[in-house]
Design brief:
231 residues, 5 helices, binds guanosine-5'-triphosphate, binds magnesium ion
């Protein structure tokens, strides 16, 4: 997929402040500092779109970007960073949870895990939370440039083993490095596939109602896909 335009829409403090649900959204979540904002920029092909920082907990709002005028990438605040004003961080955590649970045009979440680390309890727990709440997600192991490929494979296998019991079919797994520019086409391919599926669903809905324009068109807006979808 080619990205011809990538435009900042807004920074939202909560679900209510997000734009309308007329465009499909793909969100990045993961521990603070795992590389969410960097990956967003890498996929968008624009270095300074989302702000990147070595300081954990840098992204504090729900940052929304419109791609190719037809879909959105969403940079979420990370979890696992407790420093600073506790009240503020609690509110943002709640905002992220509400976004993930209730945003109906959220098509897919990219759950980021640091490929250089052995399974961290907080990541394992978070993947459990996504599964329990029926949030459609794939796993993306980040920063593959930082450790040898064998370490990446070992850490990924250990992580998958630690979540295996929760899934009949385990979530799809990808790797990436924003620094070494690895994994972009695979992840854009996942988004492309989801967009094609949404369009096909919308077309089907239009055929079933026999009226592509009428009120029923509302039902054809992007919906959360079946979490069991084999992406
Ligand atoms: N070596 C390496 N470093 C990376 C990569 N991606 C991000 N980083 C670095 O990791 C740090 C954190 O990156 P961010 O993209 O800001 O991480 P984040 O997950 O958005 O962090 P928060 O907003 O704090 O939750 C920065 O110093 C990045 O330059 C990568 O693929 N390889
Ligand atoms: Mg960030």
């Amino acid at each position: 997929m080619n990205i011809s335009s990538a435009i900042f829409d807004r920074s939202a403090p909560d679900l209510e402040s997000c734009p309308d649900e007329s465009l499909p959204e793909f969100a990045f979540i993961g521990r603070s500092n795992v590389g969410k904002s960097s990956l967003l920029n890498f996929l968008a092909g624009k270095d300074s779109l989302a702000r990147v920082s070595p300081t954990p907990g840098f992204t504090k709002l729900i940052n929304i970007f419109t791609m190719n005028k037809t879909w959105r990438l969403v940079d979420l605040p990370g979890y696992g960073f407790a420093e600073g004003a506790k009240k503020v961080s609690a509110r943002f955590n709640q905002a992220v949870a509400r976004y993930l649970k209730h945003r109906t045009n959220l098509c897919l979440v990219f759950a980021l895990i640091d490929s250089g680390l052995e399974p961290q309890d907080i990541d394992v727990e978070f993947v459990g939370w996504l599964a329990r709440h029926g949030v459609p997600f794939v796993l993306v192991f980040t920063k593959t440039d930082k450790v040898p490929p064998a370490t990446v494979q070992t850490n990924m296998a250990a992580f998958m083993a630690s979540i295996a019991a929760w899934f009949v079919q385990p979530p799809a797994v990808f790797t990436c490095s924003a620094t070494a520019e690895q994994g972009r086409q695979d992840l854009l391919g996942v988004i492309d596939e989801a967009l094609v599926a949404i369009q096909a669903e919308a077309k089907q809905a239009a055929i079933l109602t026999g009226d592509p324009l009428a009120p029923k068109a509302k039902e054809a807006r992007p919906k959360r896909p079946n979490p069991a979808r084999p992406w």
